[in-house]
């Protein structure tokens, strides 16, 4: 059973269709770690151009999906609730396997450092128990400019 569904996710982060990639949150320990899910389907708009006849999820969108899961984790921390998390840096990104339609991305994020207005997370995107992508992401947290 999901801890957060798509509507609850959109209540927290500003991403909307066609670039809201988290389907649901499986587990969440606020301020510590999160596991979320992205079901990759052939209906994704990016598959029309990447690559016709050999559909592969672009690496940059795997990173974006990890960043969205990480922002949920960060914004569920009591001190950052009601704010917006912006991706500030990507470190040590490694792509280990391609992600194709029909794959289920399990996103594992652990908060490794938190300061007044920033956080650093260790991330992994897994398919069938194997790492597709891993990276360390840094976030800057700021006041929300508009209501979501």
TrEMBL record:
Gene Ontology cellular-component terms listed: cytoplasm; membrane
Keyword Lipid metabolism part of the UniProt annotation: yes
UniProt key word rRNA processing: no
Location (main, coarse): cytoplasm
GO biological process: fatty acid biosynthetic process; lipid A biosynthetic process
Superkingdom of origin organism: Bacteria
Top enzyme class: lyase
Compartment list: Cytoplasm
EC number: 4.2.1.59
Key words of the record: Cytoplasm, Lipid A biosynthesis, Lipid biosynthesis, Lipid metabolism, Lyase
Active site per the UniProt annotation: 50
UniProt function note: Involved in unsaturated fatty acids biosynthesis. Catalyzes the dehydration of short chain beta-hydroxyacyl-ACPs and long chain saturated and unsaturated beta-hydroxyacyl-ACPs.
Family from the record: Belongs to the thioester dehydratase family. FabZ subfamily.
Protein name: 3-hydroxyacyl-[acyl-carrier-protein] dehydratase FabZ
Native species: Liquorilactobacillus nagelii
Originating gene: fabZ
């Amino acid at each position: 059973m999901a801890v957060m569904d798509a509507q609850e996710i959109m209540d927290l982060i500003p991403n909307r269709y066609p670039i809201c990639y988290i389907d649901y949150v499986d587990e969440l320990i606020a301020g510590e770690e999160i596991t979320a899910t992205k079901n990759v389907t052939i209906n994704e708009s990016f598959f029309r151009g990447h690559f016709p006849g050999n559909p592969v999820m672009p690496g940059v969108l795997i990173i974006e999906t990890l960043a969205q899961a990480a922002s949920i984790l960060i914004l569920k921390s009591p001190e950052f609730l009601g704010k917006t998390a912006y991706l500030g840096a990507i470190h040590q990104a490694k792509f280990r396997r391609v992600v194709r339609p029909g794959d289920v991305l399990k996103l594992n994020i652990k908060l490794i450092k938190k300061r007044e207005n920033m956080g650093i997370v260790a991330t992994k995107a897994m398919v069938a128990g194997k790492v597709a992508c891993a990276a360390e992401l840094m976030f800057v947290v700021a006041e929300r400019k508009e209501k979501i």
